[in-house]
Design brief:
Distance between the termini: 83 Å
Radius of gyration: 32 Å
Order of helices and strands: HHHEEEE
Structural class: alpha+beta
Shape: rod-shaped
CATH class of the largest domain: Alpha Beta
Number of domains: 2
Strand order of the largest sheet: 1-2-3-4
CATH topology of the largest domain: Nuclear Transport Factor 2, Chain: A
Number of strands: 4
CATH architecture of the largest domain: Roll
Number of helices: 3
Low-confidence stretches: 66-76
């Protein structure tokens, strides 16, 4: 009779006992022990990765800038970044201090495309804003 053979009789209690003892019978074989080891290591790996990813997005006190180190936004029109940030803040209806320019890309003489980021609660929408140089400073083009 093999290790995994079912009960000789068809009684319900015998069948339940056989089914409950099946994992122990599998552990008695070499293949069963290898499979159990793989299952334990996989579960451990998933648990460790879950803990790491759960704590990865929580900023610490050192990661947040202090209120005194945040620079006041420049007056609109003085620079391309300030004009784009001011326009995007008005468009989203958020304070100008919560919008900042991340970078720019030159499109041609007197024209730039500025990447701006706004902090709206939990969201952080971004947009490319095209600005051009005029006599009065930088203005947003449609």
């Amino acid at each position: 009779m093999s290790l995994l053979a079912g009960p000789a009789r068809g009684s319900g209690a015998g069948m339940a006992a056989w089914l409950l003892l099946l994992p122990l019978r599998l552990l008695a074989t070499g293949l069963g022990r290898r499979l159990a080891t793989v299952m334990v290591l996989t579960t451990l790996f998933v648990a460790v990765m879950s803990v790491l990813y759960e704590h990865a997005d929580r900023p610490t006190a050192n990661a947040r800038p202090a209120a005194s180190t945040v620079a006041a936004p420049a007056a609109p029109g003085r620079s391309a970044a300030a004009a784009a940030a001011s326009w995007y803040a008005r468009r989203l209806g958020v304070p100008a201090a919560r919008v900042r320019a991340l970078g720019s890309q030159r499109l041609g003489p007197g024209r730039l495309r500025v990447l701006v980021l706004a902090e709206e609660g939990g969201r952080r929408p971004t947009a490319w804003v095209t600005v051009r140089r005029t006599h009065g400073g930088w203005t947003v083009t449609s």
